[in-house]
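thread from #wetlab-drylab

HS: before we spend reagent money on co-crystallization trials with adenosine-5'-triphosphate, can we at least see a predicted complex? here's what I'd submit
DV: go for it
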Amino acid sequence: MKTSEQAVTRTPAPAIRIDKVSRHFHDAQGEFVEALRSTSLDIAEGDFVAIVGPSGCGKSTLLNMLGGFDHPSSGRITLDGQLISGPDIDRGMVFQDYALFPWLSVLDNVMFGLRHTQSREDARAIARQWLDLVGLADFERKSPRQLSGGMKQRVAIARTFATNPRVILMDEPFGALDALTRRFLQQQLLKIWREHRKTVVFITHSVQEAVYLATRVVILTARPGQVKLDERVDLEHPRQINDPKFRDLETRIFDALDEELAKTFKLEASDGYAD
Ligand SMILES: Nc1ncnc2c1ncn2[C@@H]1O[C@H](COP(=O)(O)OP(=O)(O)OP(=O)(O)O)[C@@H](O)[C@H]1O
Ligand SMILES: [Mg+2]
């Protein structure tokens, strides 16, 4: 539900339009790889869209293009009608491989995105708040290479949230975390999304996580990725994973995914390893 102030100041839906986007690559051996084929999706302001799909179906490729770090081979991606042509502070990204700067300390990594908008003092204070929230207050002087995978992931999350972006793009952000930290950060993300009406695009391999968090779950087909199913999740937060409605939706999504997983494994076998 939007407040009247947001209704006045925010632009009407859809905020993000992915319009017949295809992306292909030539890999290191010069082979043609079609990652996405004519994929279309409208994402409204304030939506929380979870994207699931088999490994290699183009999820990261799509998110990288939303972030402006990559560009479609054909088709268009717009934010409020403006073509996304590069990264911008209105879109914050948590990359699948964290993408921390190894030469900067943990604190400087989190301060990095604030350097143009805040004084050094304010940037440090904001970064420390976020490091505290993700449980890394005592690690600010460390270098990323001194951290575990889950800790790096938490630094990447702190770095993204610290800049307070309007659109949050997250590529399997909680994948390397233990169950308790994951649960805590899921709650933090929901809180931020609800209180500040962010637009979130969230890639996950966990169907349960998708149904637990999102307003919509989008399932991509095996490569080349296209939208196979787009399910609205009409369940109040906090959601109960034992709720029969939760379970029904989870089952429907699993069924759709199973078909695509079967195709993926056949595809990979034909890539050369079968014989
Ligand atoms: N820069 C690139 N050069 C060549 N091929 C690429 C490149 N980026 C992605 N691909 C290929 O595009 C396809 C989609 O990759 P992508 O990383 O988007 O998959 P994904 O759905 O995120 O997979 P996962 O769930 O394993 O992270 C894969 O076949 C991958 O090998
Ligand atoms: Mg990926």
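DV: The chain has two domains: 4-90+165-273, 102-164.
HS: ok that's useful, forwarding to the group
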